[in-house]
Amino acid sequence: MFIFQSRVTSSIQRVEDVLDLKFCTDGVQSSLQGEDYEKAAGHIHRFLSLDENVLRMASDASEGSTLDTSFKMLHEAEEKLKTIVRNKFDASVHSGDVASVERFFKIFPLLGLHEEGLTKFGKYLAAQLSEPVGKSLTENIKISDDDKRSKILFADVITMMFERIARIVETHQPLVETYYGPGKLDIMLILLQKECDRQSRLTIKEFKKRREFDYKIQQVQQSMLFSKSISEKLDCKELDVLLSELVLLNTRAEIYLRFMKKRALNDVEVAYQDSKEKDEKCANIDRIFNNCDLNQLMQEMIGHYILMEEFFMREMVLKAVTMDTIEENSLYSSMVDDSFFIVKKSVRRAISSSSVDGVCAMLNHCCTILEQNFRETLYAKLRPGFPSGFDLTQAYNIMQSSFQQGKLSSDTEKAKTAFLVTLNNAEASCDYIKSLQNSLEEEVSQLFSQCNDQNKAKLESCLADLGAVSARFKDVVDFGFSQLSSSAIKPRIKPLVDALLSTNHNITEEEFSNYEANDPWVQNFIMNLDGMLVNFKLEKAVLKTTFNRLGGLQFDKELRALASYLTSVTTWTIRDKFARLTQMATILNLERVTEILDYWGPNSGPLTWRLTPTEVRQVLALRIDFRSEDIRRLKL
């Protein structure tokens, strides 16, 4: 039964195929005569879908000559139509008839000419780029240097080309998918990319000429090679502008290439079901765009960028060190802020380039410059040690008086202040590096979230190396404190400790009793040590300051932060040590003078006041917005 049904179905199919063949034979002739090329192509497409050999084998002797005639006529019509479509397409391109170009482009796949149709159409679209991009380049290079867009004119030119290609792809991709099917888009994209490569070469060539790029690269290379500064010849401000344009060029190129690859890969995903075939096709697309001239050009430019950015960063950091100044009332010098501003600017610029290799290279250079240039400068200033002749208390007083008066009275005091400022600089640098690392990690995670695991690992490793530099600066801080301790603390403490050696501890009961009444060593030690530390009491500094309402609120926040920090790094009971300061902060935070009565006396609750009434009035007087008469009228 099954065999019978199969034979019946086969016979019916053969009859239908013969009828289709006759229909195609008659239809193609009339369509060609009427120049209805779409309809003629439809008949040819139906004919090409028939299996000619099966029809011949199934036909009987009487049908043989008829089939031969039909096949001959259809093959002749096929070749004739192919010639017509090719010629008509070329003529439409030549005349600029866009509608006709698209009309005949749609016919190619019906004739089995998918690749030829896409190739011709791709070349046509690529040709549409040549004139406007070339015109844009010609017009832009005439822009005066005074024009605000002159600094990025080549980035503008290449961006215009990328945007034009993107519009072409977005406009014509549906056309390709509808008439040619999925998996064919890459043919058109590759042809567009070849024209993009050609235009990119012209743009970069003009960029190098206008910006004197090769000459500047040569200058930088000579400077790096011979370890000498050529900053007088090469203006760092000019280099800064050049680097920004260079990065912008690469950023736009990266965005464009990602767009093209994504379009091609998405087309492959839809077209191929077999995973092996799909992977091979995707790998081929990656290879094509990774090896295109545009990508190779940008790789070369990024290599030059890294060299120039390293030079710029090193020169500017050295300049910041050379021009180091100490502002009035500052515990740090200008080199810290200036140097880290430059470092952050350079690394962030590298990140904006969208080049993983560029970012990693600049992070490595950043670490090297901070360690070899900046850190060594700090180390060299601390290496001679803290000038002798002053103890720690005097050193502290020098810092306070010099910043309050804005001047130093002697070379010795200048040297001592320079040492202490350098020590502060080293400690601040540790914090700057940690802050820099955190901010860069955030930017990298946002901009490179689509990277593969290998590139992510490279970025994480380089950022971790930057964090390790902080530990190297901590070594400088420790070294500075050891120098300070040797020069300013030990000379003061050692005689007090040595006094223990001259105190007899092989004593009688009478001497022991006498020691209880008149200790020969420890009371004197405590008194002298307390005298050294009293100058460092925060309470003393607060009483020399004035506040308004917001200032009092800020001091309260600062005190809480300080207490929190000390709690985290010590095993002491900090709350009790800060009791007086906390109460001072409460007073400074009042909205009006009489509000103190809500906390004083019977209203104090479980609070035990560590301040006397006189001290409370003294703290209230620090508020510049409180009247002295109101403070005096208080009954405490």
What do you see in this structure?
The chain has helices spanning about 1-35, 35-50, 50-60, 60-95, 100-105, 115-140, 155-180, 185-210, 215-225, 235-270, 275-290, 295-320, 335-350, 355-380, 390-405, 410-445, 455-500, 510-515, 520-535, 540, 550-570, 575, 580-590, 615-620, 630-635. It is mainly α and about 625 residues long. Among the domains are: about 330-500, Tetracycline Repressor, domain 2; about 535-635, Methane Monooxygenase Hydroxylase, Chain G, domain 1 (Up-down Bundle). The longest helix has about 45 residues, at about 455-500. The radius of gyration is 42 Å and the shape is elongated. It starts with a helix and ends with a helix. About 25% of the residues are buried.
Residue windows where pLDDT falls under 50 for at least 5 positions: 7-13, 398-408
Give the fraction of residues assigned to helices. Answer: over 70%
- In the CATH scheme, the class of the domain at 330-498 would be Mainly Alpha
Task: Compute the average pLDDT.
Answer: 84
Major sheet description: none
E-strand count: 0
Series of H and E elements: HHHHHHHHHHHHHHHHHHHHHHHHH
**Shape descriptor:** elongated
Name of the CATH architecture of the domain at 330-498: Orthogonal Bundle
Radius of gyration: 42 Å
Helix/strand structural class? mainly alpha
- The CATH topology label of the domain at 330-498 is Tetracycline Repressor, domain 2
Strand content: under 5%
Task: Note the gap between the termini.
Answer: 117 Å
Number of helical segments with 4 or more residues: 25
